[in-house]
Write a structure and sequence with these properties.
- It is built from six helices and five strands.
- It is α/β, with parallel strands linked by helices and 177 residues long.
- It has two domains: 51 residues; 104 residues, Oxidized Rhodanese, domain 1, CATH 3.40.250.10.
- α5 links the parallel β4 and β5.
């Protein structure tokens, strides 16, 4: 009889542990959903682009084409942070002036070097894959306006222009601290 009581208590304890784990997972999902809604509200308040996909699929960051990002980069009236998360050994055709360079493998411990959580952040990497991971990491760290540059340095229009013609009339701003 006592053995059955202990077995029942162990079963109940096991089920309680599972319930607690499920509640913790639900809490994490709820917190992420609230953070995502705040992200979208801040973008809306600041009259910034928010795509249908961001809303419909719950994407916490925006994917920009290299041309879209280049227009932002060359607009002296826009405030943004440019973050290059390419590996240390990556050598782009030409460095992007004003970019904060933090390799992705160091971003977890160096993200505090990014001075604002609400200023739009344009993130680039060698081929645009690592910048997706960096976007997701920064969202988890509480950054609200994160923009991945699809294709990365491989398709960055500034590299092509720097190699084939004279520099642009509008010099990029230095946003690094």
């Amino acid at each position: 009889m006592e053995v059955k009581i202990f077995e029942m208590l162990n079963l109940i304890n096991s089920r309680l542990d599972n319930i607690e784990k499920n509640i913790a997972r639900i809490d994490e999902k709820l917190e992420f959903s609230i953070q995502l809604q705040r992200n979208h509200l801040i973008r809306t308040k600041n009259k910034e682009e928010i795509t249908d996909e961001m809303i419909l699929y719950g994407r916490p960051y925006n994917d920009l084409s290299p041309d879209q990002a280049y227009k932002i980069f060359n607009n002296a009236n826009l405030d943004y942070i440019f973050l290059d998360v390419s590996a240390k050994n990556f050598n782009p055709i030409s460095p992007i002036e004003g970019a904060i360079e933090i390799p992705f493998d160091e971003l977890e411990r160096r993200y505090s070097e990014i001075y604002s959580k609400t200023t739009p952040i344009l993130i680039i990497s060698a081929e645009g894959v690592t910048s997706i991971r960096a976007s997701e990491l920064l969202i988890k760290k509480g950054f609200f306006n994160v923009n991945n540059i699809s294709g990365g340095h491989k398709f960055w229009p500034g590299h092509k222009r720097n190699n084939t013609s004279a520099p642009s009339d509008t010099p990029p701003r230095n946003m690094a601290v």
